[in-house]
Amino acid sequence: MHSSNSLELTSPGLTSSISAPLLGRSLADLTAWVQQHGQPAYRGKQLHQWLYQQGARSLADISVFPKAWRAEMEAAGEGEVGRSHLHYRAEAPDGTVKFLLRLQDGQIIEAVGIPTFRRESAAKRQRLDAAHQDSAFPSSGSHSDTSPYSRLTVCVSSQVGCPMACDFCATGKGGYVRNLEPHEIIDQVLTVQEDFGQRVSNIVFMGMGEPLLNTENVLAAVRSLNTDVGIGQRAMTLSTVGIPGHIRQLAQHQLQVTLAVSLHASNQALRETLIPTARRYPLEALIDECRDYVQITGRRISFEYILLAELNDRPEHADQLAQHLRGFQSHVNLIPYNPIQEVDYKRPDPRRVQSFVQALQDHHIAVSVRYSRGLEADAACGQLRASRKDG
Ligand code: SAH
Description:
The chain has 391 residues and is an alpha/beta fold. Helices cover 34% and strands 17% of the residues. It has helices at 27-36, 42-52, 67-75, 120-131, 170-173, 182-196, 215-229, 246-252, 268-274, 283-297, 315-324, 350-362, 383-388; strands spanning 85-91, 97-102, 108-117, 149-155, 159-161, 176-179, 202-205, 236-240, 258-262, 301-307, 330-336, 367-369. The strands form 2 sheets. Strands 1-2-3-4-7-8-9-10-11-12 form a 10-stranded mixed sheet. A two-stranded antiparallel ribbon has the order 5-6. The longest helix has 15 residues, at 182-196. The chain starts with 26 loop residues before the first helix and ends with a helix. Residues 1-17, 128-135 and 141-145 have low confidence and may be disordered. Bound molecules: S-adenosyl-L-homocysteine (SAH). S-adenosyl-L-homocysteine is lined by residues 164, 168-169, 206, 210, 239-241, 262, 304, 306, 335, 337-338, 340, 372, 381.
């Protein structure tokens, strides 16, 4: 018997079975797994604790397990945890840390840790102290006095590359390779948590890839990050550029996560020039789907809008956008364009950004501006992987 998360490949000519990694499995599944391999049930709880709280990278790390059993499992090729390897790490002066992670098949993905400091001056020193604690991660958030950050956000990837090919996005320029497995998503969060020596408080699916083209694995990761790692669903944001029908499907899951929709344009003609896949998905249809989502889930949507100087940042664009969002339970996040090498869009100056904010506010639209963090370390939006892939 194999547990539900275990994948067995039994195609002709394939003699051995390959089990899915342990990371991503629930306490019940892990308990079943240890029992299948001759261990008592309480070892399941230990395994769960070591995988999700202690950062075990292999069974060999789990010192409370019998040595002979660990060796036996390793010899049989059983019980692979499913952690990635650090390929490159870059820290920006603002504290943002970008990770390039090498997966089992050699593919490279990005994850970014974005701290929000409580007190700038004390943060660095405390962070070093925290990094040397080997197991328990102090919580981010107001209840923890020892925490140097009020928040630690991880920006995770959901695919290797991305097929959406948005013109302003560095990931889109690099093409698409494959979907990420649940353990490969969870691993990114654990990696950042371990590096910072601090509990992750928030997760945004805004790294490489289009999460709603990999919904099943993304939702499996969300459930595990929630139940096994202990991060609240309300502290997670799924960002999508919109795939016809997929937002409505997502609504059926009744999740507590926030949905962010990458709009980026106030009319269909403009949106098509920025997002090639929008040709098959009229803006009106996307907005309709979003209205359904709000109705089904009762949760408001966050709309993302990259500001590109002269192109989509004029007052009439703000007016158009406001018309689309009239009476909508929503929030607009403006993202001044973060320059990438391949194209020559321009970031608007702060005055233009402010006028756009004001124009939306005049229409009573809730709006905020989000500046990309980690620019100095190429830590924003796909650039690091593009420049370091072969490094
Ligand atoms: N495919 C999903 C998630 C990945 S992109 C989506 O499109 O929503 C996450 C966010 O980063 C999106 O809002 C995206 O438009 C934004 N982004 C990508 N490239 C950017 C750039 N060069 N400057 C600023 N924001 C960018």
